[in-house]
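Q: Could you fold this chain for me?
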Amino acid sequence: MPAPTSSTLEYTTVAGDHVHELEVKRSRFIAYLFRTADEDAARAAVAGLRRRHHDARHHCSAFLLGPDRAVQRSNDDGEPSGTAGVPMLEALAQRECPSGRADLSDTTAVVVRYFGGILLGAGGLVRAYSHAVSSALDGAPLVRRRRMALFAVEASHAEAGRLENDLRAAGTTVLGTDYGTRAATLRLALPDGPDAASGLAARLATLTSGSCAAVPDGTDWVDTPVRKAP
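A: Sure. Below is the predicted structure, expressed as structure tokens.
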């Protein structure tokens, strides 16, 4: 697998779909959050809600994509210019994550508005759309995406279970173990960096008395659950 071209080694995204609803002066604002990997997925999420909420007046959207958040788009969908999509995008882009940084990405927000008959004015719309997205993010589960160096370690069937447990106890991320006819292969992930291979080699030497070796297997993005502060 080719190495990712992004210079960013980690960022935060939502763990899956999430929805939150609020009412402002009789208007219903239903905020949806989706984890989306690319523009096609983001636009498909918006299109799906247009069909689902075909009777709503507005389906405003914003999304940011990529480890470096290079793709950022917003759409007011008929609301006065700058009162919906941009505030929604700012709510995503400026969101401080548990990492301590505003690094949320691969996330699409769609706010479906059912008009309640009372005009909110430009300022009221900005606050409503921004608050809808921020409130949805408050309750959304998050994951940390890290670019990891991947390794494969072959071990006997008899040794594989013990080795997997020992590696996990030592802090190594074990993605899984594949059991073949003759041997088992442990799939490991370590933070991508120049010392990843040497550190793992030393750890394996200690745990297996030198009988097992790690074979580099490229890089990939790996999810780690995020625990929110109570």
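A (continued): The helical segments are 39-52, 85-93, 121-139, 157-169, 196-208.
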